[in-house]
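hey
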């Protein structure tokens, strides 16, 4: 029984909020696949929440390569020092639980990306409260392009997640779903995109990951591939007001043991 439970926890860990787990940066990979850096920067100044590590950190690297100026809200002095050393990045120390801090950081940006997840404060989850602060501030300030990175298992993708994983992460997924619903239902003047990664792996980008509009999309994906797809989706008009799963069909996944295939969404 102990071994079974540990296996469930290991599977669930791959679905942990994308900014929570450690990640080794490899911003300049050459693997023969087109990356987000091949695109021209459509948005000149992009706010990133959750950019101190994981998917968010890689998103910052890719935005800079693309030519965007980045404003990153982070919680630690170490993260501020790290990000401030990068040309084109303004790192602001602050807490996404605080609305005014988020609003001040977003002011002047023409797009926002949030990968927030994992933290709990006064029984509030950053998965909802922090993401909601980003969404609300963007709406008030007229920053009408928002990309929200959540997880497979949120919203209408509940049935896609393995039941054992969903049970372990149900409170996190509920909080993320609540943030998704705010964005979808109340910010009708906003060009939003929601990206739900499958099981996350900390390995170099393969360049073979896809977005799929299939709500049953499930599988594994490397964190840097999530970042690459997120930055590509940011500048692709046909992703606006759409929800996607992000998976790599070339990776084996216990969550998709049957080997189901899903139709890729072509970005343009």
């Amino acid at each position: 029984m102990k071994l079974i439970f540990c296996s469930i926890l290991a599977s669930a860990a791959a679905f942990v909020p994308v900014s929570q787990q450690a990640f080794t940066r490899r911003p300049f990979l050459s693997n023969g696949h087109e990356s987000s850096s091949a695109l021209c920067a459509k948005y000149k100044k992009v706010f990133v929440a959750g950019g101190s590590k994981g998917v968010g950190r890689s998103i910052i690297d890719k935005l800079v390569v693309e030519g965007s100026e980045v404003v990153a809200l982070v919680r630690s002095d170490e993260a501020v020092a790290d990000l401030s050393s990068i040309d084109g990045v303004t790192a602001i120390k602050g807490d996404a639980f605080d609305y005014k801090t988020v609003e001040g950081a977003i002011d002047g940006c023409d797009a926002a990306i949030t990968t927030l997840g994992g933290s709990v404060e006064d029984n509030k989850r950053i998965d909802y409260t922090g993401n909601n602060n980003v969404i609300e501030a963007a709406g008030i300030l007229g920053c009408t392009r928002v990309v929200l990175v959540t997880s497979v298992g949120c919203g209408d993708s509940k049935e896609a997640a393995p039941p054992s994983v969903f049970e372990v992460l149900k409170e996190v997924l509920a909080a993320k779903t609540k943030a998704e619903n705010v964005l979808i239902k109340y910010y009708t003047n906003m060009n939003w995109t929601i990206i739900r990664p499958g099981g996350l792996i900390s390995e170099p980008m393969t360049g073979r990951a896809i977005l799929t509009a299939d709500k049953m999309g499930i599988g594994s994906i490397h964190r840097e591939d999530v970042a690459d797809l997120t930055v590509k989706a940011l500048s692709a008009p046909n992703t606006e007001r759409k929800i996607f799963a992000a998976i790599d069909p070339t990776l084996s996944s216990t969550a998709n043991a049957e080997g189901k295939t899903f139709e890729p969404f072509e970005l343009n």
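The chain has seven helices and twelve strands. Helices lie at 2-13, 54-66, 77-84, 99-106, 129-141, 163-186, 223-234.
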